[in-house]
Write a structure and sequence with these properties.
- The chain is about 10% helix and about 35% strand.
- It has about 140 residues and is mostly beta strands.
- It has one domain (about 1-15, about 30-75, about 85-125): Immunoglobulin-like (Sandwich), CATH 2.60.40.
- It has a four-stranded antiparallel β-sheet with strand order 1-6-5-4, with no helix packed on it. Strands 2-3-8-7 form a four-stranded antiparallel β-sheet, with no helix packed on it.
- The radius of gyration is 24 Å and the shape is elongated.
- It comes from Lentzea flava.
- InterPro entries: A-crystallin/Hsp20_dom, HSP20-like_chaperone, Small_HSP.
């Protein structure tokens, strides 16, 4: 259903654990996510604390889902004392399987979490297939 697209994410996570907060030598932290199947839907949740809904962009092209978000500075006339939360633009791409219906994605943003609900395509759902007996079917012989 879902393929991870960032082969360096685990390496970044390990580097952050060993050396602490990333500096100029490291890529920006990707937006953390959870993904799971809930019945006939695939659910993906992205953590985007401090991001306003108008700073989130969601695109689907073929089977590639792209989420872009921007955490902006507090204000122009503010003298920052401590700044530990990363600012700037973040993006994440997911390759979605052909079994998902990307035409009917539902997106909600609440309490800093972007939740996407992607329905399973009808053609991918299990179904029963009727078997018709034709002329070549074996006939029952009465004894």
């Amino acid at each position: 259903m879902l393929m991870r697209t960032d082969p360096f994410r685990e390496l970044d996570r390990l580097t952050q654990q060993v050396f602490g907060t990333p500096g100029t030598w490291s890529r920006p932290t990707a937006m953390p996510m959870d993904a799971y199947r809930d019945g006939d839907q695939f659910v993906v949740c992205f953590d985007l604390p401090g991001v306003t809904p108008d700073a989130i962009e969601l695109d689907v092209e073929r089977n590639v889902l792209t989420v872009k978000a921007e955490r902006r500075p507090v204000g122009k006339d503010v003298e920052m004392q401590v700044s530990e939360r990363p600012l700037g633009a973040f993006s994440r791409q997911l390759f979605l399987g052909d079994t998902l219906d990307t035409d009917h994605i539902d997106a909600k943003y609440d309490a800093g979490v972007l939740t996407l609900r992607i329905p399973i395509a009808e053609r991918a759902k299990p179904r029963k297939i009727a078997i018709n007996a034709g002329e070549d079917a074996p006939k029952q012989i009465d004894a």
